[in-house]
Automatic annotation (TrEMBL):
Residues 1-154 form the Histidine kinase domain. The chain holds residues 253 to 422 of 422 of the full protein. This is histidine kinase. Coiled coil: none annotated.
Amino acid sequence: KPFKVRSCIQDVLERLELVIQNQQAHIVIEMPDEKLILQGDRFYWTQVLFNLVENALKQNPRKGLTVTIGCVRENGVTRIWIADNGIGIPSADLAHIFRRFYRVEKHHSQDDIKGTGLGLSIVKRAIEAHGGTISVTSTPGDDTRFTIEIPLDAEARLTDTDSEESLPAS
Ligand code: ATP
Ligand code: MG
């Protein structure tokens, strides 16, 4: 059933509260309409947002990172973006990061950053299975930005019962 995006974002931030505190990360929320309502399954959206926000924090363990979470609905399309000003993704890797098990070599060579490389592939498949798109742009150190767009009619079908994918908890 419909729910407020704001409260969904709040859930995600609560789950990541310790990481946010440890990294002294700044969280910026860009939502022209604070009362914006999303259709579909709240749990599903929480997992999608969690994966993207977790990535932004996890790949950028330095202090003082800014993570921006935004959401707007325009012309029957809901657009959600998660951006950070961290290490970024080299352009050669950008085309591949949605593939299963793909992780940027350079990021993980010293490896204390754990992960399976599955998060993004699952998010992408789930979004696309419901008629949406997800894309990424990156200017290392300045702006790495994931953008989800989903038409309103497709959004209403985002329920866990008809979703083929279940999203990982972390
Ligand atoms: P998992 O999500 O399964 O825990 P993971 O986070 O490594 O593992 P993905 O979420 O699929 O896997 O991300 C794939 C890779 O893309 C990451 O390992 C990282 O190299 C790169 N990446 C993803 N998001 C960012 C980001 N915001 N900044 C820099 N690199 C990123
Ligand atoms: Mg991940």
